[in-house]
């Protein structure tokens, strides 16, 4: 399994996506990350392990604390891959905008009700 495969597999779970959303705001402890969820702290730790193995987060050692944070390189790899498809879709939307503008210009103007003569 490639690192990109591991990243997308990790993102398949909504809890892990929510954890990444939280970590996008800044690093946090497991306790802080577990607070909004109705699952146990060990379950959160397992989700964090999957994210770390996928290269999306990392653990910083600060004495006895082990705060987690986003790993920019891992997220950048996903962004690069998705960026190719984003550019393709943007080109398609630009073409569709041109077609729709042409249709709008070709359509007869409608007179609002009550203003007909």
- In terms of DSSP E residues, the strand content is 5-15%
Poorly predicted runs of 5 or more residues: none
In CATH, the topology of the domain at 3-73 is named Arc Repressor Mutant, subunit A
Fraction in helix: 55-70%
What would CATH call the homologous superfamily of the domain at 3-73?
Winged helix-like DNA-binding domain superfamily/Winged helix DNA-binding domain
Backbone structural class:
mainly alpha
Task: Tell me the total number of β-strands.
Answer: 2
Strand order of the largest sheet: 1-2
Give the CA-based shape: elongated
Organism: Devosia elaeis
Pfam family, one: HTH_20
InterPro entries: ArsR-like_HTH, HTH_ArsR_DNA-bd_dom, WH-like_DNA-bd_sf, WH_DNA-bd_sf
Domain HTH arsR-type: 1-90
Structural notes for this entry:
The protein is mainly α and 117 residues long. It has a domain at 3-73: Winged helix-like DNA-binding domain superfamily/Winged helix DNA-binding domain (Arc Repressor Mutant, subunit A, Orthogonal Bundle), CATH 1.10.10. It is 62% helix and 5% strand. The chain has helices spanning 3-11, 14-23, 30-34, 41-53, 72-106; strands at residues 57-59, 68-70. A hairpin with an 8-residue loop joins strand 1 (57-59) and strand 2. Helix 1 (3-11) runs antiparallel to helix 4 and helix 2 packs across helix 4. The termini are far apart.
């Amino acid at each position: 399994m490639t690192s990109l495969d591991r990243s997308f597999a990790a993102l398949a779970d909504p809890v892990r996506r929510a954890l990444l959303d939280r970590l996008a705001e800044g690093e946090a402890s497991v306790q802080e990350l577990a607070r909004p969820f109705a699952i146990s702290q060990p379950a959160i730790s397992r989700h964090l392990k999957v994210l770390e193995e996928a290269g999306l987060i990392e653990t910083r050692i600060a004495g006895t604390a082990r705060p987690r944070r986003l790993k920019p390189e891992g997220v950048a790899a996903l962004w690069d891959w998705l960026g190719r498809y984003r550019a393709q879709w943007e080109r398609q939307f630009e073409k569709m905008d041109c077609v729709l503008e042409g249709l709008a210009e070709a359509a007869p103007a409608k007179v609002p009700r009550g203003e007909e003569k």
